[in-house]
Amino acid sequence: MSDRLQQMPKLEPSAALTVETVLSVHHWNEHLFSFKITRPASFRFRSGEFVMIGLPGEQRPLLRAYSVASPAYAEELEFLSIKVPDGPLTSRLQKIQPGDEIFLGRKPTGTLVTDALLPGKRLFLLSTGTGLAPFMSLIRDPDVYQLFDQVVVVHSVRRVSDLAYRAELESRLADDPLVGDQAQTQLHYVPTVTREEFHTTGRINTLIETGKLFEGLDGPKNLDPETDRVMLCGSMAMIKEFQAYLEGLGFIEGSNASPGQFVIERAFVG
Questions:
Q1: Secondary structure class of 171 (helix, strand, coil)
Q2: Beta-carbon contacts of residue 198 (< 8 Å; ≥ 6 apart)
Q3: Cα 176 versus chain centre, distance
Q4: What is the distance between the alpha carbons of residues 222 and 217, in angstroms, rounded to a whole number?
Q5: How confident is the model at residue 266 (pLDDT cuts 50, 70, 90)?
Q6: How far apart, in whole angstroms, are the C-alpha atoms of residue 8 and residue 60?
Q7: Mean pLDDT to the nearest integer, 164-169
Q8: d(CA 87, CA 208)
Q9: Residue 243 phi/psi, 5° resolution?
Q10: Rounded to whole angstroms, how far apart are CA atoms 260 and 239?
Q11: Fewest beta carbons less than 10 Å away: which of 8, 103, 133, 175?
């Protein structure tokens, strides 16, 4: 064990938290990183849900809600996080290394799940920044491809280097043993960059207005509440804008108790 790990405080589980081990860390750029931790045998979640994770605080554990980026069947749990230099949690979380311990909540929850949507033909997953995380979970779940003919992942970021998982998405999950074959024909990836040169630029609403979002897709060149289902995850500004936009088109927001035509995640971090 390294000197650094020996100096780290030993974490203790509680009724609400388990203690897990960091398995790997990947830094996408100076603002963005992802990491994998061990998964307790008792931990069950639906693809798209979030859970509390954190580190020890002065008085009590410092916890934030993070969407799980790995699918429900994965043996490890993966998360995507921004780096906030003065953030109470992320300023420390960004320094974790394999072998470190971390708190994991015992009860995942959330509305970015297929259970909260009515049946449809096309599923649009609209994300900004780290809002991509729950959609990385969903698109690696075989059930999603049984429920929808086409699955469209839209990821809007400021810089090209912010396009986490880009290579994996551009390949349409070609190396995924469970969904690779289905994703080759059903998954569509639409990355867009707002502050640098890229083959697709502009915010998500611009892609909808110009019709670029629908290039290569079957069906209408607009969002249709009869056949389309939408999930939103990202900045609060984006979520509020699209919530109003979708409701104006006749979309009804869904929940676990009452499935609808679009859902948002209100507990998004970052």
A1: coil
A2: 160, 191, 192
A3: 17
A4: 11
A5: low
A6: 16
A7: 97
A8: 34
A9: -60, -45
A10: 16
A11: 175
pLDDT band at 265 (very low <50, low <70, confident <90, very high): confident
Q: Is 224 exposed, middle or buried (0-12, 13-18, 19+ CB in 10 A)?
A: middle
Asked if 21 and 58 count as a contact pair (C-beta separation under 8 A), the reply is no
What is the rounded CA–CA span in Å between residue 162 and residue 156?
A: 9
Residues 113-137 have pLDDT tens digits of 999 999 999 999 999 999 999 999 9
Quickly tell me which residue has 């708190």 as its tokens.
103
How far apart (Å, rounded) are the C-alpha atoms in residues 90 and 269? 10
The alpha carbons of the chain give a radius of gyration, in whole angstroms, of 19
User: Which positions ≥6 away from 17 have C-beta within 8 Å?
Assistant: 52, 61, 63, 103, 104, 105, 106
In the beta sheet, which residues pair with residue 93?
none
Q: Which two tokens stand for residue 141?
A: 């779940």
Q: Please state, as a whole number, how many other Cβ atoms lie within 10 Å of the Cβ of residue 53.
A: 26
**Amino acid letter, 214:** F
Query: Is the pTM here over 0.85, yes or no?
Result: yes
Place of tokens 């995380």: 133
Residue among 42, 18, 11, 29 at smallest CA distance from 157: 29
